[in-house]
Amino acid sequence: MAVAVLMLIVERALHYSAQIPISWQQVSAPSLAAAFLMLVLAQCVFATSWHRLLVDQGAGGTAWRHFSRWCVAIAGKYLPGKVWHGVARVGLYGDAQARAIVAPAFLRELLLGMSAAMAMVALLGWREPGAPAVLAPWAAVAALALLMAATP
Length: 152
What we know:
By secondary structure, the protein is mostly helical. It has one domain (40-150). Helices cover 75% and strands 0% of the residues. Helix 5 packs antiparallel against helix 6.
């Protein structure tokens, strides 16, 4: 299904590409390759952190098992909401003991990601001229509180 959706997106992009004023001369192959490499590396970091979260919580299984389930579940991330992402993550682990470990690890991963994003926004907003001076410190405190709550 994901391949069919991707093919539809590519087909629509090609169909409408003539109407979109894009200067392909400004697109650099090395920049695209570097961006793709960074995307792959980021996904490897995310999959590794998922594996470490499960191992630290006592889940059995190999890194390959956790990586493969993480990759399959990532498709659920782009279906309506995080609910399907969580259902896919928990559902891919068959036994009840593993599911009892996976569900809290999934929530912890979400908290870590959200709080890291909040911290970055707060830090960048703090330095932005014209930004509300009161908001950024409180956002940073909230982000740090979430990080502390989610860190084992």
